[in-house]
Amino acid sequence: MSNPETDQRPISKDIKVLSAMFGLLKPYRLHVLGALFALTFTAGITLSMGQGLRMMIDQGFGAGAAEGLDQTIIIFMGMVLLLAIGTFARFYLVSWIGERVSADLRQQVYSRVIELHPGFFETNLSGEIQSRITTDTTLLQTVIGSSVSMALRNVLIFIGGIVLLLITNPKLTAIVLLSVPLVIMPIIIFGRHVRKLSRSSQDKVAVFGGFVGESLKNIKIVQAFNHQQRDTDTFNAQVEVAFDVALNRIKHRAWLTAIVIALVFGAIAYMLWVGGHDVIAGRISAGELAAFIFYAMMVAMSVGVISEVYSDLQRAAGATERLLELMHADNLITAPEQPRQLTQPVSGQLQFENISFYYPSRTEVAAISELSLTLQAGTSLALVGSSGAGKSTIVDLLLRFYDVQQGRITLDGVDIKQLDPKALREHIAIVPQQPVLFSGTVFENIRYGRPDASDQEVKDAAIAAYADEFIQKLPKGYDSFVGESGVRLSGGQRQRIAIARAVLKNPKVLLLDEATSALDAESEYKVQQALEHLMQDRTSIVIAHRLATVINVDKIAVLDHGKLVDTGSHQQLIKSSSLYARWASLQFGEVEEVASVIDKVS
User: Fold this and answer.
1) Helix, coil or strand: residue 178
2) Are residues 38 and 86 in contact, defined by beta-carbon separation less than 8 angstroms?
3) Domains defined along the chain, listed by start
4) Is the dihedral of CA 78, 80, 83, 88 positive or negative?
5) Which of 122, 182, 461, 554 could bridge across to 379 with cysteines, CB 3.0–4.6 Å?
6) Does residue 495 contact residue 527 with C-beta atoms inside 8 Å?
7) The pLDDT value given to residue 106
8) DSSP class per residue in 256-302
9) Torsion angles phi and psi, residue 109, rounded to 5
10) What pLDDT, in 10s, does the model give residues 565-579?
């Protein structure tokens, strides 16, 4: 289930891509300054301990004076206390910044993704997007709230340590500095490989994360077709691929760490050999050598930490790239700079003027071809046709999920492209063929149609949709939890809640996509009456495969392969459209029997 369009992304050449995250830190300047001060303070205290060690050896142990030893121990404990206080402030502030930035980033990415046009999700798996918002932001939180802090602290220790090394013993410092290029080169070389492997590893995790979400969401179909073992095998294969990529990354990081440690401590061993001979010869004191060893160890550990952090930054760069792709994804459906306003009150007149449309993923075949239709305010139109005729596409175009490539669609005479999509959709409600419910209560799902509705208004909408009776029988009534995608309810119950949602919105334009297809005969009769009441004084577009449900609409449009074949009433189309007459014959029996069916339905 991997997507080739999302599996082949560009790899950044360096970690400069992380600079895009700096903008998220601007609102928290005081916290950042506080963290930087704490970092500098703790680094300074840590380095000053070397001088405390020198004083302890030379003035305490060396001089054999108990008083001098007591003083140096007191000074040392004071420094430890200051270090503990500074470490607390540093850890709290940087962790707070990391969590805050991660939360802000998740909010920004989600608010951006939720506004993207539906066509974007034809080529991007929802599970992978979910992985980016969760896994990648968590990685950045770790880097910002921990790794960056460690890096800055150890950079300060490295610089301060080198300065103090030079002050303590220039000759021994030269030995340490000679090893620095030997340490830096492996970091650069191996770092490039780690960055590429990190990006690949994150992509692989996102792919099997999307697979998990898809299979669990459709668990009934998976089990109905006994597909568990096959899906498990597919998932295991994807996990193993991700594991192999991660293992390769870990191997490179392990080699990097091992080489750095070997080079650093090899240089320290040589320095100890030279320094030890200087102490024996009396050229330096034992305290100076101890202080120098302390600083050298601090410098060595800082280099080791920086090398580890650099690898983390490589991974964060990959995560940042993936998040920036979402943040900068082009939204093809946007509001104009100066959107037009509909004349109030909105009447709901619709007009499709010679429209043609091609789906972005299927540009070779027109989904709608040169279609023109006019629907007066308060009237109803049924769209009929075989699967793929373009019925649902017309609904998507009206909701401006996509824009037509030719012609225009108007609402009350205004081109919908000149309207803010949100303002347009305020006047439209849809009841889809597959009812969509969200995890939550019945109250919350119906109130989705109008969030500010009162409890009584929600109940009134449910009564109008013939849903109140079964809702009252649920364990907690309207406060009952419906489960993920409404899994605790039957298909007919979910459909009636979806209809109640549309009733509550009280729109000027009503879109019904096979709204009664999931209902039994009795429920269908009740809901059909509720819909007929709901359709009164509203402009309604009904998509139907069963002609019995649209016999009484004002006008029926017959579609075939994206083209408008004919329009008229049911009786007119029986006579004028051979295609419609054939459908009627298949559903009602012989054509001459249709009249009696119409009488019964009417």
Assistant:
1) helix
2) yes
3) 4-327 (1.20.1560.10), 345-427+511-602 (3.40.50.300), 431-506 (3.40.50.300)
4) negative
5) 554
6) yes
7) 85
8) HHHHHHHHHHHHHHHHHHHHHHHHHHTSS-HHHHHHHHHHHHHHHHH
9) -65, -45
10) 999 988 888 888 888
